[in-house]
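Problem: given the chain below (338 residues), write out its structure.
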Amino acid sequence: MQQNNVSENMTHQESLSENMMQPESLSENMTQQDSLSENITQQDVLSEKMSQQDVLSENMTHQNNVSENMAQQDILSENMTQQDILSENMIQQDILSKNVMYRCEECYTEFEKANLLHLHQRIHTEEKPYTCGVCSKAFKHLSKLKIHMSTHTNEKPYACDVCGKSFRQQSHLSSHQSVHTGEKPHTCLVCLRSFTQTSALYRHQRTHTGERPYTCKVCSKGFYYSSTLKKHEIIHTGEKPYTCDVCSMAFNQVSSLTMHQRIHTGERPYKCNVCFKAFIQASILMQHKKIHTGEKPHICTMCSKAFSRAHSLKLHQRTHNQEKPYMLNYVPRPISHE
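Solution.
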């Protein structure tokens, strides 16, 4: 019985000890749970920090993109500004180029284009780079050479619809047609004389200004027109290459031959629209018309006397300077006292 009681007591003690062990296990379990919850809390904190870092990195990336876009916009705006400056400079250059005038250093005539100045300068330099392959005659301009070549072929493709007269140049035909129409739109402001072409007006104005840009290399005589200089130069050479087929009379210009041949043919293409008198030359018709108009454009600078012809003015001017170019070799006969 005592042994049984002892064993029972031991069993009871073991139960008590076991019960005492259970709270320790529970506390240990609670400790483990606390550790787990702490770990979970740390993980949450870490994940939250990582989320914040992701947000920060995303914000930084967005800021970088924005700054990069702004930099690109700055580059574009800078390029646009440079383009605007270039375009503005080009516009200013265009305006300046339109206002630039090219001036001849010899006679101070101004031209809008450099090539026109270069062509003009051949008047002073006497440069003639274009040569005829038939007669070796030289010209300042290629267009003049082409016109000259028609003198060898006798080609005259431009015909007048009124009188049928043919011309080598369209400009000559246009000038001729004014003979029939009587139109003269270009008027001299000094003497009010009218002309069919602007070039003819410019040449005429030299008679008032005294400008003689064409000078003979042999005798240094000056002339208003280049054509007059060419006629004069033949005086020194004596050349007369154009011969009449009817009377064999020779001339230094083809135009002189053409006018001479009208003596044989009786052609008088220039008719006065007032009295209908006809003439061989246009210059003679113009001189004749002054009879009807009373025009006297040539005025003496000494006494203001006016003349219808330049030649008449020259003859008159000799009365002022006592010039007597025509002297008779008169030898008085001795008086006889017989």
